[in-house]
């Protein structure tokens, strides 16, 4: 496994970008994490004592989620009770000097604290404010609680993730939240570029369901043009053939994407089915889609006689895109993951090593880097407040009142 790349902060592409993160759990914090990986100074605001609930999600090590070490690396933590006016004043002061503020509370929460766009942009007209919510800041559903799983359902994704006639299943990770985060990052970088010309900040409104819907490819235009409602198709890719998962003799599965015209001919030759590969009716995708059941059956008969390894060896030789289904154990042992720095070892505060995903996208000259571990709750409260000009006595007085920690 590779260790994190070591680059000075000044070499990072977002060095000097000041970000205030008010979100929790996944959507807002993932967006801030992406910026932090590339050098942004992210000050994460957390609730005193309990902090971000993600700290206690999934599997814990010494009382803290190991997921936390990925989601909050490179960030600084300030513990504030946002229900207190003095804490809200601190956020306003942070926002005054920030480039970006990220929040993913329910619409109206920020306004209730006096931290809505009208207030913050009046303080800092150059501020870029990313707001991620279930249904967006407008519309009839704006006040409904919305999590990523609901967004996946509303966007049409969950309808497609199933075997035909069976219960729809989730992707297995919080894909709705993550897609919204990435759209948020795109919005931030776009707004930063525009600010170079106008000098003005703006609000970025990202709805979870819209982020997923944006990735639904031809779903809507096919319905508009033909009245076609795409249905669940299991592991197949409807309208594109052949592309499916096929069982092998050792009960494993191989994913085979033989849907390119020349690739299809090579695949059929490898199967010993030149009759299909040379069939004029199957020279393009439209013809293959009409006979996809026949093609899938031919591929399935061939893979059923071979192990996963044998199938992959044969298809590699034929230059046919194929792959087995990885578990995380496969990922951790894979030489390609390691060669590209996608499995990094970080040293925890107790001295133990933890494997975490590497940083993407990969920039050739100014790559992102892992510079500091995820913070403990309020680890940087004193330092950040001192940077704002508060004295040690003032900070202690706020702590005594439970406003900061």
Keywords:
13 strands, elongated, six-stranded parallel β-sheet, 2 domains, alpha/beta, 14% strand, three-stranded antiparallel β-sheet, Rossmann fold, 39% helix, formyl-coa transferase, domain 3, 405 residues
The CATH superfamily label of the largest domain reads Crotonobetainyl-coa:carnitine coa-transferase, domain 1
Beta-strand proportion: 5-15%
Radius of gyration equals 25 Å
CATH topology label of the largest domain: Rossmann fold
Task: Explain what this protein looks like in three dimensions.
With 405 residues, the protein is of the alpha/beta class. It has 2 domains: 9-215 and 344-400, Crotonobetainyl-coa:carnitine coa-transferase, domain 1 (Rossmann fold, 3-Layer(aba) Sandwich), CATH 3.40.50.10540; 243-329, formyl-coa transferase, domain 3 (2-Layer Sandwich). The chain has helices at residues 27-37, 68-71, 85-96, 109-112, 117-123, 148-154, 157-160, 175-198, 208-213, 219-226, 261-271, 274-277, 285-290, 292-303, 308-317, 328-333, 335-339, 381-387, 392-400, and strands at 18-21, 41-46, 60-61, 64-65, 75-79, 100-103, 128-133, 202-207, 243-247, 253-257, 322-324, 343-347, 353-357. The model has no long low-confidence stretch (mean pLDDT 95).
Indicate the topology.
Blueprint lengths: L17 E4 L5 H11 L3 E6 L13 E2 L2 E2 L2 H4 L3 E5 L5 H12 L3 E4 L5 H4 L4 H7 L4 E6 L14 H7 L2 H4 L14 H24 L3 E6 H6 L5 H8 L16 E5 L5 E5 L3 H11 L2 H4 L7 H6 L1 H12 L4 H10 L4 E3 L3 H6 L1 H5 L3 E5 L5 E5 L23 H7 L4 H9 L5
Parallel strand pairs: 1-2, 1-6, 2-5, 6-7, 7-8
Antiparallel strand pairs: 3-4, 9-10, 10-11, 12-13
